[in-house]
Amino acid sequence: MKALRYFGPRDVRYETMDDPDLQDDRDVLVKVTGCAICGSDLHIYHGEGFSEDLGFCVGHEAVGEVVEIGRGVRRLKSGDKVMISAAVGCGACPSCLRGDIVRCETGSGACYGLSSRLQGSQAEAVRVPAGDFNAALIPEGVTEDQALLMTDGMATAWYGARNADISSGKTVAVVGLGPIGLMAVEQAFVLGAARVFAVDPVPERRAIAEGLGAIALHPDEAPQQLAEATKGRMADSIVEAVGHQKTIDLALRLAGRRATVSVIGVNQDRRFDFPMARAFAMGLTFRIGTCSVQETWPELIPLLQSGRLKPQHVISHRLPLSDGARAYEMFDARQDGALKMVLTP
What we know:
- The protein is of the alpha/beta class.
- It folds into two domains: 2-138 and 310-344, Quinone Oxidoreductase, Chain A, domain 1 (Alpha-Beta Complex); 156-288, NAD(P)-binding Rossmann-like Domain (Rossmann fold, 3-Layer(aba) Sandwich).
- The protein is built from twelve helices and 17 strands.
- The strands form four sheets. Strands 3, 4, 5, 8, 9, 16 and 17 form a seven-stranded mixed β-sheet that branches. Strands 12-11-10-13-14-15 form a six-stranded parallel β-sheet, with helices on both faces.
- Helix 12 (324-333) links the parallel strand 16 and strand 17 (340-344).
- Helix 5 (153-163) packs across helix 11.
- The longest helix has 13 residues, at 293-305.
- The N and C termini lie close together (10 Å).
């Protein structure tokens, strides 16, 4: 099959690799009909990867059609249209059965496309371990684009918004307006935010946030302008969707008393100079982590079906998988308003 393979910093190639095959009775093989580049894929692209492997298939956001199942698969059959969670769990332990793969009790948790351990989904086909659990039918009333966004980005935004304790009447700040940050802006209003301040240095991204009803701020001016707009109270809930030291620090500076800061941007730094004295004095809550995608689906699906969430606005480009290297270059350089890049095999 054809796939996007990683060979070093900024070296992603569209090449042939072995077709996936069933390795376990519970495996499912999926013909990919759409996949996407996630912001976290850029860490691998920049050479800040999670593995020293070379030649593995990248990517962890995909939808497709089931083409083969193991004899232990019960819920899916050939021809089913499915969405594939970006990360997998064993699907059998009590934590996984609750949808919480972060706490998978068998140590089976993994993410697609970080190494050859679990090949990625920016390919013509992908093997899904424990397919009954790690893939799900695309629900009625949910488009394929929406399902693709639910495989990671939309779920991560929801996890971040929930971790930020957003509720009715609160003032919210979202730092970083890539696809996940923009989806968090929309979700903040659904969760009841009275005002959402959207922070990013890119004017075009701020304009999109304004179209969603947010008040857009440049990072350099955000603390002062937020203080003026809130009469010094600052934000009650902050979602940080970048993961850099500088943006995490900014998120903390936007926080008011007893605020909650939720960091969902991928950060691989070993240490961070946390403002302990200020956090203690203000009673801040700080949360950081990655979501269990499957855990978010029961809440997100009805919001999509009812039309309350319309995340597909973050899709900016559609290219063939064969143009994947160019798609990575565009996304990395933010060329031509690049946001969510969707690839079709």
